[in-house]
User: Fold this.
Amino acid sequence: MIIKSISIEQFRAMKNVEANIGKRITAVVGRNTTMKTTFLGMLSQPFTISKENSLYGEKTLDGYDYRSQFKEKFKLSSEHDIAGTHIWELTFRQNIYNRSNNFKVKSVYRKSRNHKDSLRFINADKGKQKGHGYVQVPVIYLSLSRLFPIGESGKTSTIDMNMSDDEKKLFLTWYKKVLAIQNLRNPTIKTEKKDAKHIFSGINDDVHTVETSSAGESNVGRIILAILSFKRLKDNYGNDYKGGLLLIDELDATLHGFSQRSIIDLFSKVAEEYKIQIIFSTHSPVVLKSVNRLQRKELQKKGIEDVTNVDFDNQIIQLYPKYDDEGNRFIKAQNITTARALCSTLDDMDLKSTIINQHINLYTEDVRSQVLLGKVFKYKGIQISDYVDIIDIDLGWTNYCQLINKKIPEFTNNLIVLDKDVEFKSKNEEQKAAIESDNVLFMPVDVEKGMFTFLKDHTVFNKFEEILRKNNCIMSYDVCFNQWPEAEYDDSIEYKNWFKYLEKDIPSIDLLYDFWCTQNIEIVDKFISSFREAYNIIADREDLDYFL
Assistant:
C-alpha cells in the first residue's frame, strides 16, 4: 500500500538489516529485547500531514493528529545514542513522495530549550531538493499506553467523536464480532480520556458501562476507532487520500485467542477496502498462524510455488539476535513466508531447537499402491516425500472405513488412498459416509487389474514391448499372457497372480508404471488435482504449507 521495504544501515544493535513489508498486513515478531517497538518507530517516523496538505487539520475520531509521537516509539540513551549512528531507508510502493520511491532517515543533534544536546531524526536528503520534507501520508500509532485499567484511572472526561450512523453501525458490528459478544442491549459508544496518553473506548449498555470494561475491550475499541478514522478520510477526501498507515505495538496484549484471530480477519477486510497498511508487533502464535494462513491462501490463489520473490499482501517479519565471533549481539531480520519457517520462528520464541515435520501421513491398501503413487508423482516432477510420509501398513478398505467412522484422529486428519475398485463395490451407509470423507481418495488405476487391462490392448503392448527390448528384455504378447488368455476375469486372484508373474519376468515393474503414466496423462492430472484438493483441506486445518 505505502511501504514496500525497509533497509537499516545502522540503529543500535541493528546493522545491515532488510525486510519486506506486506501491502496490507505485516506482523513483527521477536523475543523481548529484539527492538520490535523501535522497528515500528522507524517505519512510522517519516510520515506526517503538514499545512500544505488538504488533509491538514483533520483529527482521528478520538481527537489526535494523523502523526506518531516520537517519545512513544523511541527511548534514546544520552550515552549510547550518538548522532549519525541511526540511518535507515524506506522504499515506497508508489510515487507518493516527490517522484521518488525512497526516503532516507538519519539522526542529528539539536539544541533543546535547556541548551542540552538531544537527538532528532531528519530526512537525510533534505536540502538537496526543494520540498523534501516528511512524507504526506496520515499515520496512526497505537502504543502500549492505550492499555490501562479505566477503573483505576480516577477522573476522566468524555470525548465527543461526532460519529455518523454508518460509523456507529460498523463500530458495533466489528466490536461484537471480534469480542464474540452475542447481545448488547441499547448500546452506545463512549470514549473516555484521562490525559494525552490514556484514552479508553468501549460500550455502555443496559447492564454495564465503559468504567467497568476491561483493557481488552478498550484495545479493540481503539483499534476500531483508528480504522474508522481512515475510512472517514477515504470517504471525505476521495483521490486526495492516498492511503494510511496504522501501527500497533503488541496487538495481542489483553486479547484472548478467538479475538486475536478475529482481529486479523477484520484487518484483512479493511486494509484493502480503506487503503490502510497495518503493521503491528506481536508474541502470539495465534496471530502469527492467522497471518501465515493468509500468506498460504495467497500463494494457493496465485499458484505460486517459489516464495523467493513474492510481493506478499501479508508479511511476517522475525527480529532475532545473532552473535559475531567476538560475542557481540546484533539484531537481524527475516521474512517468514511458509508454515515450515513459522514452526522454527515459534520454537525460537520458546528458546527451543526445531525439527520441522510438516508432513501429512498417507495410507494405502498395499505396497504396490504406494510404489505406483510414487511413480505418478515423480512423472509430474513432484517429490512426494516433501509432502507426505507414506505409512507402510496393509489394511483393507473396510478397516479404513471403520477407523474413519470411529473418528480416530490419525485416520481423519491424514490421507487415505483406497483401491480404485472400491468406488464400485457395494457398501452400507456407514461405509458410504466414510469413503466420502474429504481425506479419502482413490487410486488412479487398480494396480493389478488396471495394468492387466492396459497391456491387453495390442497397440499398447507393442509400445511396451519396445521399451522392454531397450532394457534387454524380450517378451512377446503370448509370453506375457500365456496363462491368462481371457480379456477379463471374475476372480481378482487371477489379476494378482498375473502381476506376480510379470514382476518376476521383467527387469523392473517401474518400467510398466512409468509407461502407464505416459499413456494416461489425463488420468494422472485428474488424480493430482484431487490429491491437491484433499491435501490442502487437511493442510488448512493443521496449519501446514499447501500443495501448490
